[in-house]
């Protein structure tokens, strides 16, 4: 078996090593399954898994133990979960991750080292979160990033130039529907490959790009 879709089921709880006999699995969808508790490392043994969909569950926390064994994962979707905490080492074992989508959720901050080993990340979507700022250097390891979307975050009122200085390959930047009223001068100067910039539905009164 290479693909398994068990979405829209009242699963709620995932046990340790629950998928251990599905070593050939490449795609797993658990979306809209009301999962609210994860024991140990449920995905251990899924070394061939490339795509994991955990959208629309009841997860309140993400940690590295939860994703242990997913060293070849390329696509991870954890949208529409009531997350309150994403541990700093959550994605450290997924060095092959290329697309990550998280939000909306209740996370109020992201750790500087969250993407420390996300060296192959190409697309990052952070939507509907609750933080007002980002730590400087958080995107430093993600130099291959081509698409960055930080949108629908009404707590964010300013953008720091340091956020984007380490993203030489960024083509698309989406900052739609935040509360941004201030951009530091030269904030986009290091984005030489930028093609599309979306700034609608903010509180911008003046702009120097």
TrEMBL record:
Keywords, A to Z?
Leucine-rich repeat, Repeat
Matches recorded under SMART domains: LRR_TYP
Q: Which SUPFAM superfamilies match?
A: L domain-like
Spell out where the chain crosses the membrane.
none
- The chain's coiled-coil residues are none
Q: What's the protein here called?
A: Putative membrane glycoprotein lig-1
Q: Which organism is it from?
A: Aedes albopictus (Asian tiger mosquito)
Q: Which InterPro entries match?
A: Leu-rich_rpt, Leu-rich_rpt_typical-subtyp, LRR_dom_sf
